[in-house]
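Translate sequence into structure tokens.
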Amino acid sequence: MTAFLDNREVSRATIDARLAEVERIAQEAGVSIAIGQAFPVTIERIRVWADTLNQKGIALVSISAVVDRQSDR
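Result follows.
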């Protein structure tokens, strides 16, 4: 599943909600892909969110790591 973080509305609340969705999907499916633009608020929300991932057992990786993982299946 791919989630667009900021394609319709660029706000902290919207981006945080999308990141929560990405996290939920990653926990359920083992992988989730998020796409965001380089808006200052998007970068800031990803940075804050990323700081919480280690304690949740989630790794933030590049898309190439996800593609490589899929080819192993």
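Note: Residues 2-71 form one domain.
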